[in-house]
Specification:
The structure is a homotetramer of 196-residue chains. In chain A, 77% of the residues lie in helices and 0% in strands. Chain A is mainly alpha-helical and 196 residues long. The first copy, chain A, has a single domain, classed as Orthogonal Bundle (Tetracycline Repressor, domain 2), CATH 1.10.357.10. In chain A, helix 5 packs antiparallel against helix 9 and helix 6 crosses helix 7. Chains in contact: A-B, C-D. The structure holds a DNA duplex (21 and 21 nucleotides).
Chain lengths: 196, 196, 196, 196
DNA sequence: TATGAATGAGTCTTCATTCAT
DNA sequence: CATGAATGAAGACTCATTCAT
């Protein structure tokens, strides 16, 4: 009886390492050897699981996204009022803890890669579709509950998501003018002022 | 009698070429030879003016920014009501024409580089400081004129800028769900709904 | 089960090739590609074993020296009278056979590199220290045996070594006035006249 | 009436600069631009006077030698006993003052170049011929005057010159075991012990 | 005469990828 | 399954040399 997926485990190990390395030194500087070392294995093994560097990177981007969604699923399904769920959801994306920061870094690297890579654009499209649907659903819930003001929920979701992306970038860049605290304040004010 | 600034002219030529190449194929893929060819010169000449690839890239990023500001200065100084100036200003950043799209692409590449480069972080800091001041100034003008609702102008500027950055990225990535038109609509609604 | 020191073998192969190339075309003209070709391998492989050209050169210089010493160890330990051992030792340094000529050429190149490289100066210092000790030891043996005239053995060793170095250079340069035969004659006369 | 040889002056200036640069950073590292800067002129001008880098280097080597001879001519012609003239001559070659050290450095670089350059070998041949004749002449004078012991003067000259070359190299390399003082002591002892 | 901007051939070095073990 | 030695294509950077002024 073979252990279920030694392969799957090893792949995860490599993908996790890849994301860490991307976040640390950037996609451009990443070498297969860096990932191998981080995953405590060899370049040969990395290539055993991923034919090319490109394959590895795409898999890493997808893995980064699916983990990000997994980590938030409970937040969305919670039995809280929409206003609270929205705040919690947005709050969970603030680049404050290491895990979230790493995920954001990887995500930012994906954006720039996607500018010249249709496959990654497609991944982005799906991911953002999902994100928009999630936010818009909460917004509609809130509007139905009379918590949020009226208006096109999708437009609102887009505005909110765009803002979070843009501000997160500034935080990631270590901006002194846009720290996590500032970002939290901006998000708070926007949610307070315009959603209630 | 040397012509005044053969040097300056040639540098511009190279920097312009560098930005075009960055926008087209990305920072990561850019080779000095590409820039040289685009500038109709040789790699030797590029290195004659810029010691290292890094120097060239930094100079290109700065050049990209200063051109971006130059192109908008008149918008800010126009004798229009603040609400119009703000709309025009935001509108000028929509990635619709080639020049603006190129500038955004370069800027996006800078972000990702800046994640691992303190010098570029500093450039980003200055640029965003300037941008925030410009937007916040219009917002305050509008508040003084009674056109905009009250509230912290800086927070508002940050929210607006963040949103524009985030949405632009999606547009640049060729998102079918976030085209320039959609982005324009989102910006319009946000400005209409919250500034009036 | 990795063969014992594929690495060591391969390194030797490369170092040997490097010394040959240095001797043939000179340190200044040496290209990694030359060494690779001589070692019947690729530039990539050379760099796999030696990070930089400098590392390779330093290693080659050390290898050249240690081989030189190995080749002479038996001479020094021979059970001959000191006068014979000294003559044989000096004689073994005459640039007459290909192996010795190659070693001298490499050594000469090291001298010039060492003029501007403290690490190589240190190597030279150790090597000459060893050489001086060896010669001085024979000289003292000879003095104890009454074969050599009295006097400071170290001073004498230095004079002898200096002379051999200087004359060898002339021979290496293909001087018509200082051939190996002439050099041998000069050494003979000095040894005869002053050691007996 | 044109000034006599602006050209000659400028050439000297460049050759002097070339020698200084060779001595400082070595033949291998020398760039035309370094020489130009040292001579307070431009690379274009250097090439105006010397077609190729090789031409410049050869000229510099010759210039270095002729200056070296000029500086010692009076020593040789002095009306002193041969033993004094020989000591003074040898002494003048000790790498103690900056000028002599520079000259030695250049000379050492020439040796290594000559290993792979017949033209420089020829220059070396002439120079050493001259040097040998000078030393041998003093030796013969000394023998005639009964100051020096009998023996082949040329062999003796060769031994002496070889020793000076070899020891100078060690001094130039900054050997802690062979400083100028040590070298002077060795030379003294050799001259004393064997010439008197 | 003198300059220095421009060139491009030449070389080190990097690194994804392969493959024998 | 896993390894890591070996490869070679690719690219940044250097610098002697040229030439218009």
């Amino acid at each position: 009886m073979p252990r279920v997926s030694v392969e799957a485990e090893r792949k995860e190990q490599i993908l996790s390492a890849a994301c860490e390395v991307i976040a640390e030194i950037g996609f451009k500087s990443l070498r297969i050897a860096d990932v191998a070392k981080r995953a405590r294995t060899s370049t040969g093994t990395v290539h055993y699981y991923f034919d090319t560097k490109r394959d590895l990177m795409h898999a890493a981007f997808e893995w980064n996204f699916s983990r990000s969604v997994d980590r938030r699923r409970e937040l969305l399904d919670a039995a809280e009022p929409p206003s609270v769920r929205l705040r919690r959801f947005i709050d969970s994306y603030l680049p404050s803890d290491d895990e979230t920061i790493t995920a954001w870094n990887v995500w930012a690297e994906l954006w720039i890669e996607a500018l010249h890579d249709p496959d990654l654009q497609e991944l982005n499209e799906q991911v953002y579709g999902e994100w928009r649907r999630m936010v818009a659903a909460i917004v509609r819930d809130g509007q139905d509950a009379g918590e949020f003001r009226e208006g096109d929920a999708v437009v609102f979701a887009n505005a909110l998501i765009g803002m979070v992306d843009g501000l997160s970038l500034q935080v990631l860049m270590g901006s002194r003018a846009m720290t996590v605290e500032r970002m939290r304040a901006v998000c708070d004010q926007v949610l307070t002022q315009f959603l209630s």
